[in-house]
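user: Please supply your own:

assistant:
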Amino acid sequence: MTNAFARDQHDLPIAGADYSAAAGYDAYVNEFLSYGADLRALFAVADANPGAPLVNAHAAALHLAFEGAEGWSAAAAYLDTAKAASTSASEREQLFVAAVDAWNVLDFETALARLDELTVRWPADICAIKWGQYHAFNLGDAPALLRFGERARIVHENRPYAHGMIAFALEQNHRLEEAEEEGLHAAEVAIDDAWAHHAVAHVMDAQGRPNDGARWLDHCAHTWEKKGVFIREHNWWHAALFRLALGMNSEALSIYDRQLWGPWPEFPQEQIGAISMLWRLELRGVDVGGRWAPVVEQVRMRTGEHLFPFHDLHYIYALARAGADAETNAFLMGMRERAETAPGGQANSWGRIAAPVAEALVAFVAGDRANAGGTLSKHMGDLQRIGGSHAQRHVFVETLEACGADGAVRSGREL
């Protein structure tokens, strides 16, 4: 029998859920925070509980977090179910449904604002805090990323996975010593906190400590095998970056072949990681052989989406690198059109930052280093607004440096 007062592990009510559904939701929260491999189990819980708006809204969120058109299609039914059932929900649950509804129409700023309000009032909802950080990261809002992270302390101090969230937020706000301390503490609380492993790696990268970074990630890597594709591949991507910094290009290429491409090529994050690594390898003069071809094949399926400017700058680089001039030009036109329809500050990120940077990348691939360098140097200080981390955006610094733009890069690590 359905019990409207079933509660989750943090004593928060879940409307329309029985105790079995609440247990399924708790299992999802644990998988989500730990980057586990069994997130999909939530879909069965949602399917069995159409009267539970929170559970169905989280199922929709998981699909949207795929970050491709397929995710939006799969999310629709769950979001419709959540909205239909939300009249029976608590105000907290209604705020989460509203956040996912805004996310669904690409209004990421409103989604962030709804999650901001929710977590101020109910900081016990650590899953909403994590989703808030997700949107803050994609919007390039480092202060919001930290604001959400600090809320995790209120209820979740010394609990698994909370300190990894705080550590990464501190690193993205250039508070590196604090970030490393938080990340190491997080790994003491939960040795498998892969996001904390990631945060400490970011610190070591930002401080120019590639030997420490390579050793740290090698030490942690045994815990990633049971994790989801995203964090497993992304942490190996960082491991490859440290090899590049050490001049171990062939080892970085080997990591690419073993860990960065192949498990889920349809996944946009796998595509982004692959593009970024191949791009960096070629900037160092490494012959990557035919590795671009399967990546570009997947990118061609993303050309009408224009969901995130950070993604699009990688996609257009891959298309240009493949010599697909007509597709590249059409993709650039689509980016400009997205700037005209994006809500709020997102329009500025698309139109005044992403589109001209995309033009610069196309020029770079075509060999026009002067124009590419001039445009990149003008926009380098604004690149944080397109999303991605400092380490991820450093490829734009490296590209500018390859243009021979003397003095154009003030401090690439601050991007």
